[in-house]
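Quick question about two entries, pasted in order.
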Amino acid sequence: MGGLAARVLRRLGQSVLVLLVMSFVIYGLIGLMPGDPIDLMIATLPNITPDDIARLRSLHGLDEPIWLRWWQWLTSALGGDLGNSRLYGAPVESVIAGPLLRSLMLIAASLVIALAIALPIGILAALRPRGVFDTVANLIAFVGLSMPTFWLGIMLIMVFAVTFGWLPAGGVPQSGAGVAETLRHMALPVATLAVATIGQYTRYMRAAMIESLNQDYVRTALAKGAGRWRVVLVHALRNAMIPVVTVLALDFGMLFSGALITETVFAWPGMGKLIFDAVMGNDYALALAALLLATAVTLLGNALADVAYGWLDPRIGRGSKAP
């Protein structure tokens, strides 16, 4: 347990350092974007003088070096002040709260459904490679991987919202709506994200399981009389899950900030759409906070994956190589 705690603390320290560096990188990149707040203000005030512009830049600190502006922002952020959103006219933390919750709801539901379907299919396909079930599973996985997300979302809307009228075409439930209504609004975007990832996880699970089943320790366990399903689910599956956990950790961060197409198709106001609107609207404070939050979620996913490696194969935590 002590080794696991030290591993977690080390990963958290590395994540904090990476997040600090990324905050400066993102701040610098946003600062290079054309059209800072003063430029936008100048566009609405044709009679403004150069002296007024200089005073405004000095008032907002835009005449200072970028590293000093970043440090001032960082100290304010550590104190709980992320600034105000220009687009929404409200503190950044209050603007992010709603989209953050909605994105986490979509991600959690879609990943649970995708893994619940993909992992058993991948395991069963690996038991008889090139068999009938394996061929059908591969075909379905390739179809899922080949379908564009926007097309799949539109098709689901056409079938379940327009043709049958079973589910809402998009949007979020009204405030105070019950659990059933919330699930109805989530059904189509969750299904879109799940179908888009089922094929990927199925392929990874199948490949990793085939490799694990061909290892010496599996043949040894079978030779000693261990049951086939015990060998598959206890011995082989733990090692086969390691590459799947790696992909899952990377996908978690990508889905958090990159589900823009799905959120746009279904008018679901999550983090992907929020980041896009903030960048396109030159809302510096909101874009910076949202991008850093997406970075933090990605780092958290990788840290949790690293901890999961030690649970799946304790030799990894001790510095040994997995078979």
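Here is the second entry:
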Amino acid sequence: MSKKIGVFPGTFDPMTYGHLDIAIRALNIVDELIIGVAMSNRKSPIFSATERALMIQHQIDKIHFDKNKKRISVEIFDGLLVNFMKERGVKINVRGLRASSDFAYEFQMHCVNHKLDNTIETIFLTSLEKSQFISSSFVKEVVTLGGSVANFVSHEIEIALKAKLL
């Protein structure tokens, strides 16, 4: 039986506790998970792709369940997600849904990806109540306005955000 490998793609500018929760819960479905950090220059991220990948890897390294930590990797990609997945032999696209408003956009992305490669399946994981309304944009705005984001991101990421934004 072949391994089920999934990719959890995103900009992750920065990774929030909500993102981390989706990644950890995805391990209940897939044998291995690649967190795909999109270059995403059209979104104008404040952190470079390398900075974002390193921050994510640091979060993964802090996870206290060793057997699962080895099942998650972090990779940067540019271009179409389906090409990134095809190059790695990945057939499962993991997406997180915070609220019903996310579904319309995510469903459209699923449809386009499926038209580009009909062997890819998309799995939607809903956010837990505690992280339902956390978004990277929201986190950056709170930092810019002088608020604490300790409930949304790790201490290290909060420090990095303040260094970039303030």
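Reply: The longest strand covers residues 32-38. The chain has a mean pLDDT of 92. Hope that helps.
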